[in-house]
Amino acid sequence: MSRKILLVEDEAIIAMSEARMLEKHGFEVSTVHSGERAVKAAASDSDIALILMDIDLGKGIDGTEAAERILETRDLPVVFLSSHTEPAVVEKTEGITSYGYIVKNSGETVLIASIRMAFRLWESENKFRKAFEYTSVGMVLTSPSGELLQLNKAFASMLGYSQAEIYSVNFSELTHPADVEMSVNQMKMMLDGKVDRREFTKRYIRKNGDVVLTDINSMLLRDSEGKPIHFVTHVQDITESKRMQEALDRQREQYDLLLRSAPISILVVQDGKYVYSNPNAAELLGYSSSQELIGTPIQNTFADDSLQRIEERMEKVEAGCSNPAQEITILRKDGKTICCESTSIPITFDSSPATLVIGRDLSVQKQAEAALMESRDKIASILKAAPTGIGVVRGRKKRIIVEANEKLCRMTGYSREDLIGKPARILYPSQEDFEYVGSEKYRQINAQGSGSVETCWKKKDGTVIQVLLASSPIHPADISLGVTFTAMDITERSQAEKSREKYRLLFNYSNDAIFVHEIGENNLPSKNIEVNEQATTLLQYSREELLNMSAQSVLPESSAKAMHLHAQELMRKKHLTFETENIRKDGVIIPIEVSAYLYTEGKKKFVVSSVRDITKRKQAEKTLARKSTLLEEAQKIANLGSWEWDIVHDTWYFSEQWKKIHGVVTNDLDTSKLIKIAHSEDAPYIEKAFSEAKEKGIPYNIEHRIIRADNREVRYIKALGEVEFDQDTGRAVRMVGTAQDITESKRTQEALQKAFEQKDFLMRELNHRVKNNLSMVSSLISLKDSEIEADLSDLKHRIHAIQLVHEKLQHHTELDRIEVREYFQELLQTIFSFSTDRNVRIVNKIEELSIPTKTAISLGLIANEIATNAIKYGFTSEEAIFTVGLTEDKYNQFHILSLSNSGNPFPEDIDIENTETSGLKLISILVRQLEGTLELEKKPSPKFTIRFPVDPIRYF
Fold this sequence. Notes:
The chain has about 950 residues and is α+β, with helices and mostly antiparallel strands. About 40% of the residues lie in helices and about 30% in strands.
C-alpha cells in the first residue's frame, strides 16, 4: 500500500516543519497550501494514500469543505489536524470522516501514532468494503432509527436504482405498504433485546413500481455497553422463483378447472375400470360424484346392445389405435339408457397404459331432430296465419322474391304472382332506398347473424308506407341460400314515436338528473315513476333500483324535516328551488340543488324534479373561503396589508392587516384621508407616485413614513401599487396595492450600520495591537541577540516585514489590502538601515497597486530574504543599488515582482529549488504558496523575477 501523504496547510513555515517530521518517519509527503489545490492534487495524484488536512486555510474553501469535495470522487482516509477544540468543529469533522482528529502541538508521537492508526483502520475497512460491495446478495446497513447508512450495488440494482439515487429515497417508501408494520415489529424485537437476528420474507417496491419479494436475514450489532450500533441486513431476491412456483400452481389449477368445467364427459379407463372421471361424466352416468364412479367396471355403464362394440373398441385401443366418434347407448346408475357419442384414445396414466374416453350426450340433439320434423308443418301454417308480412329473397344484388305470405301481399297491394320471381326493387320508391336497405341488412347479418332496418315501401297503388324489416339468413354459413324477412307497417307508430322521441331526448340528455314522482296522501313524493340516465349517474343506482325507491329513501336523516317543509311550500307555490342532500348508493352524501314542478293529471298530483349535483360549487365556495382565510393569515405573518380602489365607483377596500398597520378601524376612507395618515414630509412624494400611477400607468415601489391614526406613532412603510385600465377607453378603472410595515427592518439596518462602524474600529485596534506585539517580540530578539554570538537579524527582519503590514492596515481605509509601493519602500529602508558599512540606494519601480494583506506578508518575507542575501554576499566596493519593481499584466491577470542588486553574481553551484539554506528554501515555499513561478538570473548580478496571479482565489 502507498505511504504517500497529502499535507494541506496554508502556513508555509508550519507546513515545512510538519513535512520534515513525516518524512523522518518514512512517509512520502506532498504539500499544498489551499483547499482548492488539495482537491486538484487528490484528483490528479493516484499515489496519495492519506490526507492530513488543516481546517483553517485562509480565504477560499476551508478544510472540511475540501475534504467533502475530495471524498465525492475518491475514497481516502482523511485525518484533520487543527488547533480547534470546540465540540461543534470536532462533530462536524466526524460527519465527514472517522479516521482521526489531531489537535495541533499535540507532539510528534501523537501525530505519527494517529496517522499509523488511520492507515490500519483504512486497510481493515477497505477489506470489509470490498466484501460488502462486490457480493451478489443485497446488503444494507441501517441505523437503529431506520435511516439508510450504507448499501451495496446489488441492493440498489435489485430495486432499479443507482447507488446515488437510492440514498435520496426514504427507506420506508422502498418497503411495500402492507409490510411496513411487520418490518418495524421485526426490528423492534431486536432493539428490545428479545433476539439479535431475524429471518423473514418481505416485499419491496422497485423504482418502476414493480413488487420485489425477498428473503431477509437481519442482525443487530451492539457496542461493548450493549447499545445498538446498526442493523446488518442480507436481502435475497426470490421474486422470480416465487413467480415460477405460483405459475406452476396456477397452471395446475387451470388444468383441473378445465377438466372439471368441461361440458363434455372425460373418463380414463384402466384394467376395465374407471380410474378418473370429471363431474360431467359422473352426472351423465347418474352418479352423485366423480369419486363414486371411480372403480366401477365399464361393463356396468353400457346397455347390452352396445357391449359387443365396446369390447371391439377397447381391443383396438389396446393395440395402440384410436376409435373415431360413434353413437353408443349407455346405461345410467338408475337404469335409464341414453344415446351418446363416444371417442376413445390410448394414453399413459400414472405410468401405465390406459384409455381416454370422451363422451357427448346426444339426447337433446335427437329430441331436436324430432322436433324439427314436427315444426316444418307448423311453419307453413304460421306463414299463412302470421299478422306480419313474411317473405324470402335470394341473391345479394337483385334480391329476387321467392316466397311471400298473404299478409305481405295485402300490405303491398300485390298478388303472390305479382311478387314471386321479381326483384325486391319493386317494393321501393327509389333505387337509393333499395341499395341502402340491402347494404345495411347484409352488414348486420355479417356482424351479428341477423339485421333490422326501417325504410319506406311503395304500394302497388303508389302509396308510400313506413316499414320495419327484420332479416335472417336461412343458412348462416351461406347467405346465397336465401334470407327470410318480416315486414311490419309502422307508419302510424312512426309518427307517434317522433313526438315521443323529442320528449325522450329532452328527458334523457338533460345535464341534470330528472325524477318524476307521484304525490302521496301526506303531500310527500312517493315512489319514483320515471328517472333519466343522469339520475342513475348521480345516485349510482340502476334505473330498476330507482324505480323501486322514493325520494325519501335517498335523503339523510338530517334533511328529512326540511323536506316536509319544502313539500308544503311546493303545494302552495307549484314551483320551488331549494338545496338539500342525497345519499348515493356507496353511502357518500352529496349536496344537490332541486328545481321541483307540481302538475296534475286527473285527480293525481305529480312532481317533476330537476336535480343538480353542486358538490364542485360547494367545494369552490369552501376553497374560496379557505383562500381568503389563508390570505389574511399570510398578510398577518408578513405584516403586509392590501387595498383596492374601484376608480369608476370611487369605492375602497382595505384588508384587516392594512387597517392594523395604519391604526385604522373604519372603512370610511378616501384619497384625502389616506394622505393625512402619511407623514407630512413624505406626503408630496406619495402623491406624486400615486398620481403617476393613475395618470400614466407607472407602477410605484416606494418607502415612506406614516403616522398611525390611533397612537400617532411614526412607522416606515414599503408601498407598491399599480393601475388597471379599460382596454376600450384607456381610462383607469381599478387600482390595487400593498403596504408592508418595515419599521423593524429599518431599525435593524441602523443597528447593523452602527455594528459595522464598531467592527471597523475594533479591526484597526486589533492591527495596532498586533503591530505592537510584533514590535515587542522584535525587541526581545534584539535583547537576546546582544547576549549570544548568533546573528538573529534575519529573524528580526522577517518579523518587521509582518509588523509593517499591520502598521499600514491601521492607517489605511481598507482593512484587507495595502498600497504595496510605500510598503516595500519602508521595508527595504529598514532592512538596509541595519547595514552600517555602506549606504544602499533603493530604486523603487513599483506601480501604484494595492494587494491583499496575506499576499503582502508573503512578498515582504521574500523581499526580506533577497535583500538580506544581497547585504551578506552581493554588494561589492562599488555603489550598492537594490532595485524592486512590481507591475500588473492585466491581460494575463498576473503580477510580476522583480528584485535585483548590483555586485557579485549568484553562485552557479547553488540550485535555489533544492537547497538546504533556510532563507532560500523559504523563498521557494512562499512562491508556491502564492501559486506563482520563480526565475533567477545569476549573472552578471542576481535578479529574481516572481510571477503570481492577481488576487489568488484563496484570498477571496
